[in-house]
Amino acid sequence: AAGVIQSPRHLIKEKRETATLKCYPIPRHDTVYWYQQGPGQDPQFLISFYEKMQSDKGSIPDRFSAQQFSDYHSELNMSSLELGDSALYFCASSPFVPTSLAGGKANTGELFFGEGSRLTVL
Amino acid sequence: AQTVTQSQPEMSVQEAETVTLSCTYDTSENNYYLFWYKQPPSRQMILVIRQEAYKQQNATENRFSVNFQKAAKSFSLKISDSQLGDTAMYFCAFTPYSGGGADGLTFGKGTHLIIQP
């Protein structure tokens, strides 16, 4: 079965440089999430998108931005990189499913994670 | 805001033993989902088990089962007949029911489980 694809898997940048991470969700998944996991830390939620619109925002620095495109892939752009940005960046996707509740669709809450992109800032 | 607490930073058991990982959470939501994710040394995040808050029956997946106590806001994971491949970080996670959005997961700090041969 198709999984969430992230690229690049590894990235090395210098301080103050810019980096872009890409995420291709599982086909027919409506939502994309970005997480940052520092060494020995739990994953921290950055931002999410539903149907190409920003849905929820977590602890994403102002230096970071993200968007979801018409083909549902997403990109996380990171500028003015700092040493503390060195981390594993996960993308995850999640499907909406039909529901009898108002709105007709609901998020299952279950996230399918990619293998992560490891960013090292020197 | 939701919080998830895992009070056991590390646990170690012998192969074939049963182990229980603890998780408590705090929320004002009535409808939500709870998860246990496993992160082995490869760092891949793998879903172990999922529980919907409105379901009273505890979820089970083969050797993995949960004890969900909604009133106590407790969600523990029991691993039976533990195997060497179960060695990993285990994260408890919470998300509110989202009828029309994509709320992120809130993770606990994790429990490092070591299965000894």
Give keywords.
heterodimer; A: 122 residues; mainly beta; seven-stranded mixed sheet; four-stranded antiparallel sheet; globular; B: 117 residues; six-stranded mixed sheet; 12 strands; 51% strand
List the helices and strands and how they pair.
The complex is a heterodimer of chains A (122) and B (117).
Chain A: E1 5-7, E2 10-13, E3 19-24, E4 31-37, E5 44-50, E6 53-57, E7 64-68, E8 74-78, E9 87-94, E10 96-98, E11 105-107, E12 112-113, E13 117-121
Parallel strand pairs in A: 2-13
Antiparallel strand pairs in A: 1-3, 3-8, 4-5, 4-9, 5-6, 7-8, 9-12, 9-13, 10-11
Chain B: E1 3-5, E2 10-14, E3 19-21, E4 24-26, E5 32-39, E6 46-52, E7 60-61, E8 64-69, E9 74-79, E10 88-96, E11 106-107, E12 111-116
How would you portray this structure in words?
Chain A has strands at 5-7, 10-13, 19-24, 31-37, 44-50, 53-57, 64-68, 74-78, 87-94, 96-98, 105-107, 112-113, 117-121. With 122 residues, chain A is mainly beta. The termini of chain A are far apart. Chain B has 117 residues and is mainly beta. Helix content of chain B is 0%, strand content 51%. In chain B, strands 2, 5, 6, 10, 11 and 12 form a six-stranded mixed beta sheet that branches. A four-stranded antiparallel beta sheet of chain B has the order 3-9-8-7, with no helix packed on it. The mean pLDDT of chain B is 92. The chains are: A mainly beta (122), B mainly beta (117). Chain A binds chain B through residues 30-33, 35, 37, 42-46, 48-50, 55-56, 58, 88, 90, 92, 94, 99, 101-103, 105-113, 115-116, and chain B through 32-33, 35, 42-47, 50, 91, 95, 97-110.
